[in-house]
Structures are given as structure tokens and as C-alpha cells.
Specification:
The protein is globular. By secondary structure, the chain is an alpha+beta fold. A hairpin with a 4-residue loop joins strand 9 and strand 10 (208-210). The chain contains 15 helices and 28 strands.
């Protein structure tokens, strides 16, 4: 079966153009020249030696493409017809793209990139009711946005400049091989085993796994070159790109060539669709006969992700009463996953609702784990269900709860992991885990200079693109809200919010639901912690004044303790203030606005020995627990 018949069957011919698709199967790709929460939660490899410098980082290519030109393009719509030939590790794609000039200057040309192992075939521009061919050149540039460490960049000449804010519709064909490559990691000293465990994207008969921008450029992208040896810039770029293109729409029509039994299913952007086999030999034994399996994923908002595509050959097996659907040949792991899910399920039901929104899909894969909402690609190993439950508390939350806002979509699973630790190991263990997570946040949140311009602030949660914010800070924010409004109000809010539908698009909807459920005004909190990034509080115990109260009847003498707390930070905080004497404690909550002080007076039945401000539940610039010993006379 040739590519021309497949593309014709799937209605992928260019309007008004005659395209010689036979060249796609015969196209030759020149081998690339020989030549690092990464986000805080992602480790590509460990090495004892310093990384070697990357290949020459030219801001301009041989065609003098400026980085400003590359960074000016924003993709607002993808319409992809993808034809895969796993036996040959090949793909051929017709892509219809809508791109917007998000820069400040007109663009007379467009610079688009693919993996260096793919070749651009043609470009066309939608004009009235026909497609106008566009001239282009292509060359290889060094960049670690692709696993090969290079990208094939097409420089497309436009008939008229694309003005700032304007969009253009393009149609392009490209093809080539996508084999596993760890060149970008090997060149900076990664051991081969660790490099291949991190960069496992490929098209192959045994596994087709394509994660997208930052791993493999299997669809058109645009960005300035960035390198793994240059701090966390690559992972910051991936986060910014996810945020920038989160409102883009994406549509996929997929055809997969096979011999014998057809593949079972495709997973695209975390969603599963069965693959339907089509064979011309319906009445013949199919053991060695060819066919094509197809699937279509309707147009939908891309969300905060990079487009990913996985093909599975075997049927999925269910575990934990259909909570989990796993593609694996390690059948001994299924009862363990079912047991672990059964441990976590009551907590998820209590906080998020009686039933999940979808099934958690797991693809058993030996490489480093990859997660996209309710899809987990990771090794499935036989282990203790208690140890596995900690991971499933996070992963299963994606099946129970989702949001178009990354700080909720990723923060709620992180928050549920803390709740599971509190449930299984106690509050102190959960607070220690929270403190470990926010230690990185304290380093990422420097104090704001005096009279700082709000536009120069860091990443607000509603615009966060780094994991340290949309996971770690988000989990800390939800933990603080739990303390402020109480368990019941937050549970009710999470359950109502996940049913919100289109209202989820409003970044202030979560606050409105929480205020309705708690009957509290939370503007002060959301303004400093969610809608803006005002850094972290910086608390100190300014003054403690104890005064003994006279005894009344048979009641022992008590003490009235006045505590003043100073907040030198730029974010408001509501913290627990505790007076302790041995095992006897009394706690009240105190709100301290930014750059100000606040006081509380606590009646303590006993002789106070120490005052504790904050118990680690509120992140601070420095330590998150303040203690003052009292010596009573």
C-alpha cells in the first residue's frame, strides 16, 4: 500500500494542487552532523563530571535567521494528518497550521522547525479558495529541543509581510524517520544507559512513543535554539511554550501501517482512541498480510501540554474495578496496582467526589516516566502496594479532577499526595514533605525591590510555566487554603469546581466557588498568592508579653500572652500561633499583611514556656517555624 492511496483515502490532498506523494516514501534524509524542577522534578541523568559545552550556539543560522523572528511565532491551530510506518520507523505528515505573529515587527518570512531526521517537502498558503505554493529553504540548526540535538529549520518566504498580531494559514508536507536518539545527552557526558532511559522517543514496530517539543519535534514548532548545558533554559522554554499555546486547537487523523494483527489503540494528548484496522484481504488469514489502522481525534483545545502520541499493540487490562487500564505484559503487577488503588480510593472519594471523571491509563514502558493528565507512561514493577499508593495518590487524582489552569490541574494532585502522606504517616511527615517542596520555591522567589513594578513580578499561579510554581507553590497554596477555610469547605469546592464545565475558563472561578462554600472573603489571599506573584512572607516574632491573670475560685492562675508578629515580606500570611507548656498547647490563627505587623492575645491555662509562630504550613523566605522561649518569674 503506497502513501498516495492512504492520503487520498483520508482526504489529505492539497486543494487545487497536484502533489507527488510518492516522493515521500523515497525521500532520503541526510544524517545529522555529530556534534542541559531541568524543571525541578525532572532529572535527565546524573554525572560526576561537569557538562561539556554544547555545540556552537549561533543566534543566527546560515540564512541569518534572528532569534527574534523564531520567537515571534505562536501556533493557534494544528490540523494533522499523520501516516506512520513503524516497520521502517517512518512518518509522513500533512499539516495545516495557523500561526500568529506575536512579535513587535512585521515578518517577511517564517522559520519553522522539525526534528533533524525529518525533511520538509512543500509549503502552501491559504488564499481565498486556493492554496498558493510558497518557496522555502531548509537547513540544520543546533538545538536541544529535539533528542538528536539538532532541528531541520525551514525558512518560508511570504508574498507579503505578516503584520504584528496577524495570523496566516499554512499547509505543509514533511516526512522522514524517527528513531531513538540520545545524541544531545551523550554529547554532554551522559552514560549511554541513562541517556537512552531519558530520550526514548521513537517510531518502531515494538513501540511508537512521541512526546513532543523538548523531546522530539515530530510536529512543526518555532523557537530560538536552547541547550541542556545552559542551566534550566530548555525546560523553562518548554513551560513557556505550553502556556503560550494552551488555547490552541489541535486535530489529528492517524493512519498506521501494520502487518498481521492491527495495533490496538492510540493515545494523543492524553486521550485514547481505538485503532480500526482496514485490510484488503478480509477473507484471508491475516498472519502476514498488510493493513492500515486508523483513528481520529476531534479538534479540541491543546491545554497546558506538548502534543504527544503513543501507539499500543496489545489490549489493555483493567485493575481496581476499572479505575486503572494498563497496557502491560507484566500481569503479576495488576493485583498490586489494584491493591494500591483500593488504599487511595477512599481519600479521593472523600475529597474529590464519589466517582472519577475518566479511567487512569497506564502504558508499561521502561524509560523515565511521562505523565499527561490521566495517562501515565512508566515502568510497571511488582512492589509493595503501600509504596505504590503514594504515587497513585497523585496519578489517580488526574482521573478524578482536571482544570484548564495548570496550577489546579497539577497542584491538586500534588496536594492530594500530601494529604495521603498525612493520612498514612501523620501530619508531621506531611509538613516535612511540604517544607522540602517549598525550599526550592524560596530560592526561586527573591524579595521584591522597594516600589517594584508589578509587571516585573515573578510568575503568578494563573500564568505559571515553571513546575516549581504550578506544582510546588500550588500545593502549598491549597494546603494554606485548607487551614484558612477548613476541610469541609475545600472538599465541597473541589467537588463543585470539577463539574464547572465552561466556567473553568475564568481564572477567578475557583475563588468564587471557595468563597461561596466557606462564606469567607478571600480576595486578600488570592491577590497575593494566585493572581500575582508577590514573593513569600518573611515573618519574625517582634514581641511577646505574658501577664499572669488572678486565680478565680478553685481555678488555677492563667496567663494572658500578647504576641506581635512582623511580616517584612511582600505577601500576606495567615499562620498558626501556638503557646506551649509541656504537652499543653493553645493555638490561634493570625493574619499579617505584607510589610506590616499584627498582634494577638491568647489566654493560656498554665505557665507558658514557648511561643511558636508558623508550623511549616506557610512558605517563607527563610525558615518557616519561629520559636521564642519564655522564662517566667
Amino acid at each position: 500500500m503506497n502513501l498516495k492511496s492512504v492520503f487520498t483515502r483520508n482526504r489529505v490532498c492539497l486543494l487545487g494542487m497536484s502533489v507527488a506523494l510518492s516522493s515521500l516514501s523515497a525521500a532520503q534524509v541526510n544524517p545529522p552532523a555529530t556534534r542541559n524542577t531541568a524543571p525541578q522534578d525532572k532529572v535527565l541523568f546524573n554525572s560526576d563530571k561537569p557538562p561539556a559545552p554544547p555545540a556552537t550556539k549561533t543566534s543566527k543560522s546560515v540564512d541569518a535567521v534572528a532569534d527574534a523572528e523564531r520567537n515571534s511565532l505562536t501556533f493557534t491551530a494544528y490540523d494533522l494528518d499523520v501516516h506512520l510506518i513503524p516497520a521502517k520507523s517512518r512518518m509522513a505528515v500533512r499539516a495545516k497550521l495557523t500561526v500568529r505573529n506575536s512579535g513587535a515587527e512585521p515578518l517577511s518570512r517564517l522559520a519553522l522547525q522539525l526534528s533533524s531526521s525529518l525533511d520538509w517537502e512543500s509549503f502552501g498558503m491559504q488564499s481565498s479558495e486556493r492554496i498558493v505554493p510558497l518557496s522555502f529553504t531548509q537547513h540544520v540548526i543546533d538545538t536541544d529541543t529535539d533528542h538528536t540535538g539538532q532541528a531541520k529549520e525551514a525558512v518560508v518566504t511570504l508574498p507579503t509581510p505578516l503584520q504584528p498580531g496577524a495570523s496566516i494559514e499554512l499547509t505543509t508536507f514533511y516526512s522522514g524517520e524517527v528513531e531513538q536518539s540520545a545524541k544531545r545527552l551523550e554529547r554532554i557526558g551522559a552514560p549511554a544507559t541513562q541517556a537512552t532511559a531519558a530520550d526514548w522517543d521513537k517510531i518502531a514496530p515494538d513501540s511508537t512513543a512521541l512526546r513532543g517539543f523538548g523531546d522530539v519535534l515530530w510536529y512543526p514548532t518555532a523557537s530560538a535554539p536552547v541547550f541542556l548545558g545552559d542551566g534550566a533554559k530548555l525546560f523553562q522554554l518548554v513551560g513557556r511554550t505550553k502556556l503560550q499555546e494552551s488555547t490552541a486547537t489541535i486535530h489529528l487523523r492517524l493512519a498506521v501501517e501494520y502487518t498481521g494483527n492491527p495495533p490496538d489503540a492510540a493515545f494523543f494528548c492524553g486521550h485514547r482512541e481505538p485503532l480500526v484496522g482496514i485490510s484488503e484481504h478480509t477473507n484471508v488469514q491475516a498472519a502476514n498480510l498488510p493493513g492500515v489502522a486508523t483513528a481520529e481525534f476531534p479538534s479540541h483545545p491543546l491545554g497546558f501540554r506538548t502534543p504527544s502520541l503513543f501507539i499500543t499493540g496489545g489490549a489493555a487490562n483493567s485493575a481496581a474495578e476499572n479505575l486503572i487500564s494498563a497496557v502491560t505484559d507484566r500481569y503479576d503487577t495488576l493485583p498490586i496496582y489494584a491493591a494500591a488503588a483500593a488504599k487511595v480510593e477512599p481519600l479521593l472519594k472523600e475529597w474529590l467526589g464519589p466517582t472519577p471523571l475518566t479511567t487512569l491509563h497506564i502504558i508499561d514502558h521502561p524509560g523515565q516516566p511521562f505523565e499527561d493528565d490521566a495517562l501515565l507512561v512508566a515502568p510497571m514493577r511488582a512492589t509493595n502496594p503501600d509504596a505504590l499508593a503514594a504515587m497513585l495518590a497523585h496519578t489517580l487524582t488526574h482521573a478524578w479532577f482536571n482544570s484548564s489552569h495548570a496550577w489546579l490541574d497539577e497542584g491538586v494532585p500534588q496536594f492530594m499526595s500530601l494529604l495521603w502522606m498525612e493520612h498514612s504517616q501523620g501530619r508531621e511527615a506531611a509538613l516535612q514533605q511540604l517544607q522540602q517542596q517549598v525550599n526550592v520555591l524560596a530560592m526561586a522567589e527573591p524579595p521584591l525591590p522597594e516600589n517594584a513594578d508589578p509587571a516585573q513580578e515573578g510568575q503568578s499561579l494563573i500564568r505559571a510555566s515553571d513546575e516549581v510554581y504550578y506544582r510546588r507553590k500550588a500545593a502549598a497554596v491549597l494546603w494554606m487554603l485548607r487551614s484558612i477555610v477548613g476541610n469541609n469547605a475545600l472538599k465541597q469546592t473541589l467537588q463543585l469546581y470539577r463539574q464547572g464545565g465552561s466556567r473553568d475558563q475564568d481564572p477567578k472561578e475557583f475563588q468564587r466557588v471557595l468563597e461561596h462554600c466557606s462564606h469567607k472573603d478571600l480576595r486578600w489571599f488570592f491577590d497575593d498568592w494566585v493572581y500575582r506573584d508577590r514573593g513569600l512572607p518573611d515573618l519574625t516574632i517582634a514581641n511577646v508579653t505574658p501577664r499572669q491573670l488572678p486565680a478565680q475560685g478553685l481555678k488555677a492562675a492563667s496567663w494572658l500572652v500578647a504576641i506581635e508578629v512582623r511580616n517584612n515580606g511582600d505577601a500576606a500570611a495567615e499562620v498558626p500561633v501556638t503557646i506551649r507548656s509541656g504537652t499543653l498547647t493553645t493555638t490561634e490563627r493570625l493574619r499579617i499583611m505584607a510589610k506590616s505587623s499584627a498582634s494577638t492575645r491568647i489566654v493560656f491555662e498554665g505557665t507558658p514556656e514557648e511561643v511558636i509562630v508558623n508550623d511549616g504550613s506557610v512558605p517563607e523566605m527563610g525558615v518557616s517555624t519561629h520559636t521564642k522561649q519564655l522564662v517566667m518569674h
